[in-house]
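Contributing: when you submit paired examples, paste them exactly as shown. First protein:
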Amino acid sequence: MKALITGIAGFIGFHTAARLSKAGWTVAGVDNLNDYYDPGLKRARLAALGDAVSFHELDIAAAVAFAKLIDDEQPDVIIHLAAQAGVRYSIENPFAYARSNLLGHLSVLEACRHAKNFSHLIYASSSSVYGGNKKTPFSETDPVDAPVSLYAATKKSDELMSATYAHLYGVQQIGLRFFTVYGPWGRPDMAYWTFTDKMLRGDPIPVFNHGRMRRDFTYIDDVVDCIAAIADKPPSFAGEDRPHRIYNIGNHTPVPLLDMIGALENATGRKAQMDMKDMQPGDVCETYADVDRLAADYGFNPATPIDKGLKQFVDWYRAYFNV
């Protein structure tokens, strides 16, 4: 079996490529290596993959070039993880989200529509689509028509485009709403990374909404277990009018922000100096995943508690930066 992964130099893309190649898949990947965060980290991830994958540096929003790549590679499964990430950055640079998340996703859908010997598309959505939803845990059947950030709006738009392509052209698709994925080789814009960096330097950390927040932190290994299982076998769409399904991927255990900071204090051996701040625009107080659908279809059982996962991250961070 052959998979093509977009965003292969990104956090989740890198781990997915490593897992599939280890399982015997042929893996090709594409990434534009943009400078949203240090491209050196992205290149280091590619170097860690080595010859296990074939890499193409390409912007997926370049539809003609991306379609040619799919025609050349002829993958069985496309795993679309490339996106402009980050809620807060979407306020500063909205057009980056329109190109990467909207045009990029449409480019992938068009390539899938015309692909030969193609099975199914797996694509990244986000828990951000739930916006300020007060009902918890968040279920895939909840309304998601009130986003509180442009990033969330683009991800909701991606889901709608995918549903349309499933209806019009029969493109089999699975959208994954990720809940705060963390772990080794993670993203430097995420709170657990910036907190670790500042705590090890002895600098204060910004704690928004005065710490009154909870997140469903989901360890990378649990996430990749799901992606690999869905890559091996898409769900049955028998009796459905369109072959498109959405799954939450979360730990089903929201962690208070102050507890996460406490786990980092234990992992780093440093006491956090907390700079309490008001809530930032576009942020939400809580995320909490209902994962019953994923458990029923794929036996999903997230197994990594926050203290263990953050210890793994801090150990990696110390080794990577020689701290």
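Second protein:
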Amino acid sequence: MMGLLKKYTGGVAINNHAELKLFNERKTRNQFQKHLIAKTAANYVENGDVIFIDSETITLEMITFLKNKQVTIITSSLDIIVQALPFENLNVISTDGLLERDTKSFFTCSKRNSFGKYNFDKVFMVLSGVSVSKGVTCTSSIKSEIKETIVKGNAEVFLLVDHTIFEKYAMFTYCGLKKIDYLITDDFLDESYQDYATKNNIEIVIVNHS
């Protein structure tokens, strides 16, 4: 096989596994399924919640379904900030740092542990790939440390996954699957995931396509 690794802005991905895609390219893939996943995730948010929304196309869709709720949102996503701007009931706190233009998100090396100070009620996380053996992975070491800090808190952890990234993995694991409370996806999972979820008290939520 020619070349085990591919280098991208912000991280390294393993060939034939999860790769970092440009934001606009990812936005067009599986849009309907992502819309349903985001809608389902937003249904778990209650008035008064303090939530973290990870930076990705699938989480951007959540704002459409949160716009009538009283919620505090912490995010590193420029697009989520802009999307939430018209809705005064959405209190938005932006993380600081350098703007990564490919993903339209802010990140910084020096502030990664600052996320530990927030008392989130719920966190909505995204990923580059997931498997029972490798856990939940992403392509950047810096983002991996930030995500790891966020999911280590006491908040309920929601993982938003479209079916195309199961059994794929990127370079960095930011948590094991057992740390997840809710796994929201658009297709039924095989027995290995169902068994793992049962043993580790993970609720698998399959979105309604009707």
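If you have annotations for the second protein, write them as plain sentences, like these:
The chain has seven helices and 14 strands.
The first helix runs from residue 23 to 28.
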